[in-house]
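User: I'm putting together notes for a lab meeting next week and I want to include a structural view of one of the chains we've been expressing. I don't have a solved structure, so I'd like a prediction I can at least talk through. The sequence is below, exactly as it appears in our construct file.
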Amino acid sequence: MSNAVNYKEITQKGLWSNNAALVQLLGLCPLLAVSSTVVNALGLGLATLIVLIISNVVVSLIRHQVSDAVRLPAFVMIIASAVTCTELLMKAFTYELYLILGIFIPLIVTNCAVLGRADAFASKNKLLPSAVDGFMMGMGFMLVLVCVGGVRELLGTGHLFADMQLLFGESARNWQLNVFGSNFPNVIFALLPPGAFIVVGFLIAAKNTIDAQLKKRADARKAQVTKGSKRVRTTGSVA
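Assistant: Thanks for the context. Below is the predicted structure for the 239-residue chain, given as structure tokens.
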């Protein structure tokens, strides 16, 4: 990569055009399994975000000291260490949420999005761009998780932000919003795995639709500029 790092491009790729969940379709197992509520989705998203930042930073720091023969095993060990640290932090501060998320916290080690960013970006770039890339990729993944969790929780229970004290402490116990009231016929299907597949499918379709509209507008502007350009006619002979 050149010395001039395009942070705007890194941000755009992480949040939208190369989103790990909606474009690369990586990490779908935890995305579908734990996104039944906002607090579960946010907890796993934050854990993945922390692991991405730590692993990208460490890989960038040692990129010149690790040979190609042991590159991938070294990256896996770094990611596993970051996951272990994150797991211990959750046990210490959000133990109940850690129990709810269960096996999906240690399974972050197998998330191809984490290893992919370490190998494709952090191993080729300096510290700051690698940290920004890890943060943006983690944010993109977490935002999709929270969107899916919010839709499923809203349709399945009629409210949002239930049990937020599991992540933010007792001060967040009253954050729950009863959006539809007590008469809402809860769509239990939304809380089941098929509901997760359907919500993610709609999100992917919405993103593809937006991308298609943006491309159509960009092509229209380009065609308009081309049509409006003037031709210059040269006359005379060339010796």
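A couple of points you could mention at the meeting. The CA atoms of residues 34 and 101 lie 7 Å apart. The first strand starts at residue 159 and ends at 160.

User: Perfect, that's what I needed.
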